[in-house]
Amino acid sequence: MDYQRIALDYEGQVAVLTLNHPEVLNAVCSTMVEELSDAMFELAEPDCPARCLLMTGAGRAFSSGANLSARGDSSGPRSGSRETLRQGYHPVLMTMRDLEMPIVTAVHGPAAGVGMSFAMMGDFVCASKEAYFLQAFARIGLIPDGGATFLLPRLIGWSRAVELSMLAEKLPAEKAAEWGMVNRLYDDRDSLMTGARELAERLANGPRSLALMRKAYWNTWQNSYEQQLDLEAKLQGQASRTEDSSEGVAAFLEKRPAEFKGR
């Protein structure tokens, strides 16, 4: 498919999804949301060649959030619109959550508003020291969305999440790393993209069980201890029957590196 506001490329077993409207710092418009939905649907297909998703932004930003200039345009997403969130953003975010592959996000420049929500969806959040995160909603009289009120308290704690949201102050990447929201920190955009790609390639060469780990960790936020134990047993049963598990055991016994196929 020909995209206008995103790019989806395959580099070996890594799918690289780029938010691609640098003229407005990759602000999210209705076209971008529709294209993200199509891209996520493609990545969720059983025959998708990718085993890891790397998500980033073109130019000087990851994403500056929703494109407010489209508020008066009926064709654009209106910030604060219940229908826009439920029918546009939510299916994209839910599909990202359920993808059967690890997600790496590479953040350079601002990740603001719903752009910050997309950045936080990474299993691994990588950032350059020039990146910052911003819950900008209070500046325009709105509340955080895109799952921010779910993710932020779990990533950095209740009080910090409330502070970021209500004061709408920038969170520099180095502070975000100290708080545990960023996994890997890099000096600049070039080293960020090199490091994020290396990480994505490493994950893409990992076993099928990485997808099952994602499912286990997402469910731990809603399950009781007993439910989580039961889920672990169920997923472990699935993992133990994969070709990659057999390969991993054989490689261990033969004292050689495992060659996983994602099956």
Low-confidence runs: 72-79
Count of helical regions: 10
Approximate helicity band: 40-55%
Instruction: Determine the CATH superfamily of the largest domain.
Output: 2-enoyl-CoA Hydratase, Chain A, domain 1
**Rg computed from alpha carbons, rounded to a whole number of angstroms:** 19 Å
CATH architecture call of the largest domain: Alpha-Beta Complex
- Number of extended strands: 9
User: What structural category arises from helix and sheet content?
Assistant: alpha/beta
Topology as a string of helices (H) and strands (E): EEHEHEEHEEHHEHEHHHH
Largest sheet: 6 strands, mixed
Give the overall pLDDT as a whole number.
91
Strand order of the largest sheet: 1-2-3-4-6-9
- How would you describe the shape? globular
Question: How would you portray this structure in words?
Answer:
This protein is of the alpha/beta class and 263 residues long. The chain has two domains: 6-204, 2-enoyl-CoA Hydratase, Chain A, domain 1, CATH 3.90.226; 209-253, no CATH class. The protein is built from ten helices and nine strands. It has helices at 30-44, 82-98, 114-120, 148-156, 158-167, 173-179, 189-204, 209-219, 225-240, 243-253; strands at 6-11, 14-19, 52-57, 103-107, 110-112, 124-128, 132-134, 171-172, 184-186. A six-stranded mixed sheet has the order 1-2-3-4-6-9, with helices on both faces. Strands 5-7-8 form a three-stranded mixed sheet. β3, α2 (82-98) and β4 (103-107) form a beta-alpha-beta unit. α8 packs antiparallel against α9. The chain is globular. The two termini are 27 Å apart. Residues 72-79 have low confidence and may be disordered.
